[in-house]
Design a protein that fits this description.
Rossmann fold; alpha/beta; 7-stranded mixed β-sheet; 12 strands; 189 residues
């Protein structure tokens, strides 16, 4: 069931042209950039886009230029990952699953703190702020025991399910979700 829902949502996302993805991504990231959450955050935990995902790189470059700490994930076997701060995109290498990652330097790993932004990718989201990732469980596992910061899913409107997702106990519930057309809050803020 989950696999089929992911497949349908990703197929819709893949139909977007590069120009559409760039424009929709700009609108998504602009909402975040203009928010008090962004202004107050000292650290931004995010991902670097791949395939047809929401494009994060211009937003991350802006955050770096403003002196914010930007941390990207390093994926390990068995659903483990950690986040390393970067200074520029030039240091990124292609890692597991074809994802651009910082160098594997666990001694430089940092953890999200209260007030930080934690931007989460996904294959599909619903209006209760549930998400399905890509099936690996990395974000669910990482965020399971960590709290106090802002977890924000970003995806295109075509990835938003109007019917509730069939979630399981281990599936991540986000604080909010941003699409190009709206910002959805779990607690109806």
């Amino acid at each position: 069931m989950k696999q089929e829902i992911r497949k349908i949502s990703l197929a819709k996302r893949d139909l977007l042209s590069l120009e559409q993805r760039e424009e929709k991504s700009r609108r998504i990231m602009q909402q975040l950039y203009q928010s008090p959450l962004y202004r107050q955050a000292k650290q931004i935990f995010s991902y670097f886009e791949m395939r047809s995902e929401v494009i994060t790189s211009p937003f991350l470059a802006q955050a770096l230029s403003e002196g914010k700490t930007v941390a990207l994930p390093v994926s390990l076997p068995e659903r483990q990952m950690y986040f390393v701060p970067i200074q520029s995109f030039a240091e990124l290498k292609t890692g597991r699953f074809g994802v651009k990652e910082p160098p594997h330097t666990p001694e430089k790993a940092i953890l999200p703190q209260a007030g930080d932004l934690f931007i989460v990718p996904g294959s599909v989201f619903d209006r209760s702020c549930h998400r399905f990732g890509y099936g690996g469980g990395y974000y669910d596992t990482y965020l399971e025991q960590k709290h106090g910061f802002h977890t924000i899913g970003i995806g295109f409107h075509c990835q938003l399910s109007e019917t509730p997702l069939p979630i399981e106990a281990h599936d991540l519930i986000l604080e909010s979700i941003i699409t190009e057309s709206e910002w959805i809050w779990r607690d109806s803020k």
